[in-house]
Design goal:
Layout: E1 2-7, H1 12-24, E2 28-31, H2 43-56, E3 61-66, H3 70-76, E4 84-86, H4 90-98, E5 104-108, H5 114-126, H6 134-144
Parallel strand pairs: 1-2, 1-3, 3-5, 4-5
This protein binds D-ribose (RB5).
Length: about 150
């Protein structure tokens, strides 16, 4: 399975850890950057790159990171076809897949320790979407993508 991953500077360290750990576990990991924690970059750029790549490849899953995971998850969820879930523990990681069929996981580099982040990631990867009663709800989420944007 191809895992596409990207972060801003706030998520860089945790991203590096996950790239290494997932590669060791045999996953095919595509790292879309950023490449340093020293140079501030804008999280929407990296979250969007991951989200677009996942939207284009139904066999891929994505991981986005920023300092909190909040901004990266908001940005990823703007891309059609993406269901990005920000998680902080194994329960929410499992539910993100079983109930929400999340195709992108969001993690916070400044909020989540490495081992917890890896546990969350493995739980999400190994969980299975349950379908059934959850599918009409996913369909309603997808339908929201066709609504006209709010005019501010
Ligand atoms: C960058 O300092 C920080 O705002 C970003 O990584 C993220 O936490 C935003 O949600």
């Amino acid at each position: 399975m191809n895992i596409i991953i990207g972060s801003d500077h706030g998520g860089y360290r945790l991203k590096s850890f996950l790239v290494h750990a997932l590669t060791l576990k045999g996953y095919d990991v595509t790292d879309l950057g950023t490449d340093s924690s020293d140079h501030p970059v804008d999280y929407p750029d990296f979250a969007a790159a991951v989200a677009r790549a996942v939207a284009a490849d139904p066999a891929a899953l994505g991981i986005v990171l920023c300092g909190t995971g909040i901004g990266a998850s908001i940005a990823a969820n703007k891309v059609r076809g993406i269901r990005c879930a920000l998680v902080h523990d194994c329960y929410t990681a499992r539910m993100a897949r079983e109930h929400n069929n999340a195709n992108v996981l969001a993690l916070g580099g400044r909020t989540t320790a490495e081992e917890i982040a890896l546990e969350c990631t493995m739980t999400w990867l190994n969980a299975t979407y349950q379908g059934g009663r959850h599918q009409p709800r996913i369909d309603k989420i997808t339908a929201l993508e066709s609504e006209a944007p709010r005019k501010d």
